[in-house]
Description:
The chain is of the alpha+beta class.
Amino acid sequence: MNETPLLERARRFLSALRHCQKLNIQVHSVDAEGIVLRLPYSSSIVGNPQTGAIHGGAITTLMDTALGMATLCSLPEFEVCPTLDLRIDYMSPGVADQDVYGHAHCYRVSRDVIFIRGTAFQDDPEQPIAQVVGTYMRLGKDIKGGINFARKLKGETQ
Length: 158
């Protein structure tokens, strides 16, 4: 895979999120149209031990992260954009032994709010396990979060 500046920025952003590291969420693909993250299947994301179905909290984390990171694809410079509202419609359970992919894209960018939608799916994007819509607040490019977060985004060591 070619390492583009957008892909590099997305990977740095994801590496600054400890909960995503714990879940082993990875950037699958990213371009100006949107982002796809991958949540590898593991025993740590199982919600139903009898069936191996994936816990809804793991899907929520994947999708909130994917939607939040979709802002990287739409804004010329990085901005901290916290979640204002997130709605997830679960359509079917995440089945055992299959990775989950979270696709997200911005469909409207205003001065203060970014509107994003996406889907979570396993083997077929046309058969989503969840549909997601969210709004994210634009705080501006001068706000960088905590000092360690800002350093990680810049690729600096601590």
